[in-house]
Amino acid sequence: MFKPKVQNSQKSIPSKQPEPSQKGSGSTFSEDQIRFRAYQIYESRDRTSNNPDEDWSQAETELMELVGAK
Predict the structure, then answer these.
(1) For the residues of 1-57, what is the DSSP string, one character each?
(2) What's the confidence (pLDDT) of residue 32?
(3) Positive or negative: CA dihedral 57, 59, 62, 65
(4) Residue/partner pairs of 31-36 with CB below 8 Å, 24 or more apart
(5) Closest listed residue to residue 16, CA positions, set 4, 31, 33, 29
(6) What is the phi/psi pair of residue 42, to 5°?
(7) N- to C-terminal Cα distance for the chain?
(8) Are 50 and 42 in contact, with CB atoms under 8 Å apart?
(9) Mean pLDDT of all residues in the chain?
C-alpha cells in the first residue's frame, strides 16, 4: 500500500496588522499585539542586533500611528 509523505508545515505568522483592543477610554493595544509587532520588527532585521526595548517602543509608536491614521 502506498503512503504519501505528509509534510509538516510551520504555522506562518499572519502579516495583518492587529486591531486595537477596546479597553478603557481610548484605543490601546494589548501587550500581545505590541509584542507581536516588536517581534516582526526584530525579524525584519534578520534577527540581528537584539534591542528589545527599542523594538517595543517602535512597535508602540507604529501601532498608535496606525490608530491615528484611521
Answers:
(1) ------PPPPPPPP-SPPPPEEETTEEE--HHHHHHHHHHHHHHTTT-S--HHHHHH
(2) 96
(3) negative
(4) 33/63, 34/59, 34/60, 34/63, 35/59
(5) 33
(6) -60, -45
(7) 58
(8) yes
(9) 76
Residue 21 has which C-alpha cell?
483592543
Residues of the chain with pLDDT below 70 are 1-27, 70
Which residue type occupies 5? Answer: K
User: Distance between CA 54 and CA 27 in Å, rounded?
Assistant: 22
Grid cell 510551520 in the structure block, residue: 10
